Amino acid sequence: MKTIIVGLGNPILGDDGVGWKVVEELTRQMPTDLSVGLECLSVGGIGLMEHLIGYDRAIIIDAFIADKEDLGSILIQKLDNLPNYSAFHISSAHDTSLQNAIELGKRMGAQLPVDVTVIGIAIQRISEFGENLSPPVAECVPQAAHIALNLLKENVTNSREESHPHG
Predict the structure, then answer these.
(1) Orientation angle between helical segments 98-107 and 45-52, nearest 10 degrees
(2) Which of 29, 67, 73, 132 has the greatest number of beta carbons closer than 10 A?
(3) Where does residue 88 fall: left (phi above 0), alpha (psi -120 to 50 degrees), or beta otherwise?
(4) How wide is the angle at C-alpha 38 spanned by C-alphas 33 and 43, nearest 5°?
(5) Residues 133, 12: Cα–Cα separation, whole Å
């Protein structure tokens, strides 16, 4: 199963760039025998959907503002289980949601992932520019990378089982 991992965010907006930092960590930890696309992007909606064309599965890592969650908390959700609204990087206020963009792309004949998992990392509102993450968010980067690698390995194992169902 052809998989892409996308880190979303703005790398000069502090904690908003955590998706990029997780992908940088994955680049260092990625086993050489795993073939996966890795990208860092600052797009949403249709622009993000275009980067997913040709993949069967996507793992998206993004920050989310959650005042009721501990800073650096990690939430894992299937895209289908997330609200379909325009906010943050999975969607855009000037565009459409990723869910709508994927549906539109499929209607136009694009090969798009059937499985999209979102690894969300809780941050607080961002009002200052900076390239560094806050300590609680920086501490979650290795854990988020580990989660993404485990999701990727599960997929590889399942794909091998599917291609050799009888052993």
Answers:
(1) 50
(2) 73
(3) left
(4) 165
(5) 10
Report which of 37, 39, 24 is spatially closest to residue 142, judged by C-alpha positions: 24
Q: Mind listing the pLDDT tens digit for each residue in 37-68?
A: 999 999 888 999 999 999 999 999 999 988 78
Length of the chain: 167
Helix residue ranges per DSSP H, the chain: 18-29, 45-52, 98-107, 135-163
- Is the C-alpha dihedral spanning 10, 53, 38, 123 positive or negative? positive
- Phi, psi dihedral angles at 140 (to 5 degrees): -85, -10
Give the separation between CA 16 and CA 41, rounded to whole angstroms. 12
- DSSP designation for 82: S
- Residue 152: what residue type? L
- What Rg do the C-alpha atoms of the chain give, in angstroms? 16
Tens of pLDDT along 140-152? Answer: 999 999 999 999 8
Of the candidates 139, 86, 146, 84, which has an alpha carbon nearest to the alpha carbon of residue 116? 84
Distance CA 118, CA 121 (A): 10
Q: Which two tokens stand for residue 57?
A: 């599965």
